[in-house]
Amino acid sequence: MIDPDDSVLVGVSGGKDSMALLHFLLKLRKKMPRLIIVAVSVDEGISGYREKTILNLVNYARVHNVEYIVASFRDYIGATLDEVVKVSSEKGLPYLPCSYCGVFRRHVLNIVARKIGATVIATAHNADDVVQTYLMNLVNNSWDRIFSLSPVRTSSEEFVVKRVKPFYKTLEKESALYAILNGLVQLEYIQCPYAKYNVRFTIRKMLNELEDKYPGSKYGLLQSLLEIIRLRGSQITKKYTKCIVCGNPSSHSVCKACLFRALLGLLSPEEEKTVLEAAKTDPAVSRALSVKLVQKH
Ligand code: SF4
Ligand code: ZN
Q1: Residue nearest atom 7 in ligand 1 by C-alpha distance
Q2: Topology adopted by domain 7-233
Q3: Number of other CB atoms surrounding residue 145 within 10 Å
């Protein structure tokens, strides 16, 4: 996943998984002294929630002398997530805080990765997260998204930064235990106020019940996912193009984050003109601008 000369952007929310990943990678750096590690925390702007977890990172980074960046939705998207949710309701768009949040978070990480010249983006998705996403996409019949759930994602395009999930096979309770034993987080549990609107949390509960009753179920599902990816793997190479608005990797001429920003009225006049021009020639863009958002995970 990571080479000794890599420059790694670690996505750190300040929660237990990402703090465990940062701590673990810093240990790895002792064996790979040329490794560059920069912790990047995306501040979505969720009042009463994110400020607390970011503080975990800031305190840790100061003590361990880690380079860190806090990149906010306000600066990179033009609005906080709370504002995005409010505007989307006013515009009659579906109530999908987590869809905006996930798309915009990836968008911000990609921009920051380009800015700092990162060669790898490491995120703390663990086995529980991966299996939950797998089931959510099965429910939606979203096979492209299932095929892209691999532990390492690379591309031959130079503008696509490699993405890795070092905790892919680590259960959430294991990374939580690692974080607690290393004193990386407060024991107080804070939940995002939007979490209850996400189908993930129903699936998470269901999976935990399944695991309690039939231990090993999560690993079984993870293995089945890896098998599906392996069977399909060699036949597909996802093609990326550069978003004409922001320059991030995208499946269409305009990326999903910029389409969301267009729907929410967050583009500058020039960016808006670019998107409207693209809509004339790219059916995917005109479709996205004319239809209501559909919840995908
Ligand atoms: Fe974002 Fe949803 Fe997670 Fe809250 S629960 S941080 S809104 S993805
Ligand atoms: Zn874009």
Answers
A1: 98
A2: Rossmann fold (3.40.50)
A3: 16
